[in-house]
Amino acid sequence: MVKVQERRHLVLIGNGMAGINTVEQILKLAPSTYRITVFGSEPYPNYNRIQLSYVLEKSKAVEDIILNDWDWYLENEIELYTGTTVTHIDTEQKIVKADNGIEVPYDTLIIATGSNPFMLPVPGADKEGIVGFRDIADCENMLHAADQYKKAAVIGGGLLGLEAAKGLLKLGMDVTVVHLFEEIMERQLDHTASLMLQAELESQGLKFATGKQTEEFLGDDRVSGLRFSDGTTLDAEFVVMAVGIRPNTALAKESGISVNRGILVDDYMRTSAPDVYAVGECNEHRGTTYGLVAPLFEQGAVLAKYLCGVDTKPYEGSVVSTQLKISGVDVFSAGEFMDAEGLSIVRMHDDWLRIYKKVLLRGGRIVGGVLVGDGKESSRLQQWIRTGTVMTEAIHNAIVGHASVETENTAAELADEEIVCGCNGVTKKHIVDAINEKGLTTVEEIKVATSASRSCGGCRPVVEQILQYVLGDKYDSAAAKQEAICSCTTLSRDEVVTAIKEKGLITSKEVRYALEWDNPEGCSKCRPALNYYLGMIWPAEHVDEKDSRFVNERMHANIQKDGTFGVVPRMYGGVTTPDDLRLIADIAVKYNVKLVKVTGGQRLDLLGVKKEDLPKIWKDLGMPSGYAYAKALRTVKTCVGSQFCRFGTKDSMGMGILLEKKFERLDMPAKFKLAVNGCPRNCAESSTKDIGIVGNEGAWEIYVGGNGGIKARLAELLCKVRTDEELLDIVSAFMQYYRETGKYLERTSDWIERIGLESVTEAVVNDLDNRRALAERMEVALAQVKEPWSEILNNSNLRERMFEEISVSTKQD
């Protein structure tokens, strides 16, 4: 009888990105080699730490940044101890001991304890209200503080500090960034880029105190302010320290493992103790510690191969890159970034567009670069830096030119072990193997199979290049861009829409049944999408499925974090009257509104309205809904134009009001914003709107695809027109074309990048017959729209079901 060899026991201390990524690669290389136990101090499964800033600014929930959920550990037979801290390693007996008394033997041990935020050793640093920013608990502390306090200080003008500061700003706090040096992000940006970034952040509301050294934290038990070495002070009720990190070496040091700044490792991540390895921010390799995620994954790739007996090159260090994860701010830096002797510089600086690009060459090869304001080429720039690509005219045009230029596919130049997806540590080989072994043909399939592009999406262009490189002549660029609308089906948006038309499907239930949904009830992703597609295709026949709407759209108001709602009445073109202002003020007092806020769309937001008061406040206002909650036209922002401005050449207010009244209430794939300027001075900010209209002498310029949100994008010129009638026709055709071809929740900025401005121009400008047909279908859709507040006020059954019953049950609870 042959004895089955028992699997070796691998213990991982640290449930973070570096350690778990190493385990993932071990499971791929040799799934039967190890029995695995994982210890994590936090009460969560593995999550994406670099996306904490998105959680802080509330654009993502904690669930959205989980990389490996609880089921993943079960499926891979991994024994997981969360909320458990290892306190000692007996390297002779090969046993780890935890703070709750658990003792686990190991054959192989990986230490991945990460790093701790560096807390300034100055008087008062132990006061209440002073925190670091490294994990979900810190994030929750900051969210809680924003509910109670107004003035915050963030110490540290580096990557993490700026992300923390912007998050607190979005939570409504008055935030000052305190930085020791005169320039922010001085380790990643040159003088010009740093000043541009600071100016952009100041325009968004952040304050800066640069060149300031914190000497003391003021206050009694709780912090009340900071005193600097120059004698000046700063009021602050809450302080975030983001001045740097220190490798978490306490466990290794206490256990007799050699430590310097980090846990000392060789080129295969071996420590001074036998069968003990260290990976990630906790280690020190060739005198260097890393605080960015890509190097940690590169280390993990070497370690995984070494532990699985796979030939591998030693780890020799990393070329680091930095991308600021702040909504509306585009900053990228990689490799060398400061001018120096022996370097050639390719530079473009456009103050008007607020774009700065700089590429550094040594011997004609790309060795570094900085991008501010336009990061479309960041993935490829990083790739060129890593491979030492020779500068060519095509690359020069792509990086420095005013428009993106197609360059050759450089996927063949990437080494197999090159990390393509920095967020999830996916190498080129992982992607190539998945394509070959599983017959993948789309980027979406690669994302599901490998996690490449699953998080921030920045690596998607390189992933597509690899797909094209592997498939060769079999590559279908159109098919490669298709993706299933949700996990309930393998069908793409286009396939679903085509089937709805061909089969005459009218309800979401019919769609899920006829198209054989895996989940017959659908999910939170496909239900609202199907409801939109059906309403777009059959505007007269489809009955809106309110239960498929997001909560804000069901309630026709924006729900706030305390359970109250925000009510925004429509102000056409941002224009109002004294009577309407007086009415709004009286109603705000009557219903004890917590806050009246002027919005970015030139309207008034009544915040803190109770759910049961919504119908009453709508009735008393007697104004139409501003649709601040809907996937529809939100606002048409205007300047005063020729009616009042001495520079105005066109009646921007009149045109804005006309457009808003025509297209209000119409369902769109995503929220939609317009702006109309009476002259090129851009006071209404047309350059960041879905449609931006600029008046010139004798003409209107139409710009499209702008976005000022998380993925900022400047609008592009669609066309120029002479008459108001032609302007309305083209705007109507553009909006209908977007409605018919856009994916649900896809902003026009992404839509235009996906299908191309040329195809949009051809469909809505050049092809007159198609333009006319689009405009006619738009009129059919507009004929179906209803004012939602009035509809509810005039429908007692609907009002009772949505508001009155809810309010009664709430009181009973």
Structural commentary:
Pfam families: Fer2_BFD, NIR_SIR, NIR_SIR_ferr, Pyr_redox_2, Rubredoxin_C. By secondary structure, this protein is of the alpha/beta class. It has 27 helices and 36 strands. It has a five-stranded parallel β-sheet with strand order 3-2-1-7-19, covered by helices on one side. Strands 9-16-10-11-12 form a five-stranded parallel β-sheet, with helices on one face. Strands 21-22-25-24-23 form a five-stranded antiparallel β-sheet, with helices on both faces. Helix 1 (17-29) packs parallel to helix 8 (293-307), helix 11 packs across helix 13 and helix 22 crosses helix 25 (768-782). The chain is globular and about 80 Å long.
Layout of helices and strands:
Elements: E1 8-13, H1 17-29, E2 34-39, H2 52-56, H3 70-75, E3 79-81, E4 86-90, E5 95-98, E6 103-105, E7 108-111, E8 115-117, E9 130-131, H4 136-148, E10 151-155, H5 159-170, E11 174-179, H6 191-203, E12 207-210, E13 214-219, E14 223-228, E15 233-235, E16 238-241, E17 245-247, H7 250-254, E18 263-265, E19 276-278, E20 283-285, H8 293-307, E21 321-323, E22 331-335, E23 344-350, E24 355-362, E25 365-372, H9 378-387, H10 393-400, E26 419-421, E27 426-427, H11 428-438, H12 443-450, H13 460-471, H14 477-480, H15 493-503, H16 508-514, H17 526-537, H18 551-555, E28 558-559, E29 565-567, H19 578-590, E30 595-598, E31 604-609, H20 614-621, E32 633-638, H21 652-663, E33 672-677, E34 691-696, E35 699-704, E36 716-721, H22 724-741, H23 748-755, H24 757-766, H25 768-782, H26 788-793, H27 796-812
Parallel strand pairs: 1-2, 1-7, 2-3, 7-19, 9-16, 10-11, 10-16, 11-12, 18-20, 32-33, 33-34
Antiparallel strand pairs: 4-5, 5-6, 8-17, 13-14, 14-15, 21-22, 22-25, 23-24, 24-25, 26-27, 28-29, 29-31, 30-31, 34-35, 35-36
Helix pairs in contact: 1-8, 11-13, 22-24, 22-25, 24-25
